[in-house]
Here is the input.
Amino acid sequence: MILTLTINPAIDRIVSVDKLVFEDRAYILDQTEVAGGRGVNASVVLHAFGGKTLALLTSGGAAGERMEKSLAGMGFPFEVVRVRPESRTNLTISDKQGLTVKLNEVGHALGEPELKQIRQLVEARLAKARWLMICGSIQPGVPASFYCEIIEMAKARGVKTLLDTDGEALAHAVEAKPTVITPNQHEAERLLGRALLTRSQFLEAVDRLQAMGPESVILSLGSRGAIGSGPDGVFEALPPRVDALCPIGAGDSLAAAFVWAMDKKKAFYEALRWGVAAGTASAALPGMSFPTVEQTRAIYKQVEVRPAR
Here is the structure.
């Protein structure tokens, strides 16, 4: 199966409004609340694609109870480490034109006993996994090297790893040589300490990121697709133009579809194509919605993949 790990999950509160403009009122058209976090979102996509997934996450307080109730209706199995601090609540606001604002809580500190429980849960489930997706931010107080420990644990058991995180957690974890990392443009800029504006800069960034340790790199570029460097070379995947309604969550869809395709023994460039198709399909859906395999396949047929060099 494909494991997903989200140590800092959240309740995602999604508000749809008529318009988002400064210094003017907006009217709420709809609002929903759903369990979220990058790994949870990845499991949603994997399940929708018919993949076998198990979501591992933390849960705390009243928000954690609501999160678990939401997860119970999603159709895939999950296991939680119950922690003392309250789980996060994040806010996403989108208007009818596709403009989106996402406001995330940082999360509350976890103690070493709680981190030990997370390690033990992951270790116990690795025996039945082919991939482990390590997704999302870490809470304050969690050592920046924590994901390194998880990657090394998975590698020791022959489990491939996808790392989808940001900041210090990403900077440390790349040194553990995960199978693949999937930073978006902003995350890559923060890691490399420079702006990325042109195609040549994107290609150089992919090379620099891969030199840091991961076997493969996928640099997600939103509506411009992605550049991936893998065992067969460097490729760029160019999606069709779509009317983007909400780009939030598109990166989670990309990562999940990529792993789903790799787990089906697709070539790296084909898995990249599936990932970009899923990310594009996700962005074309309202709110924080995730695509079905049928919706993704329709976009997949229109994604162009070519050698980047």
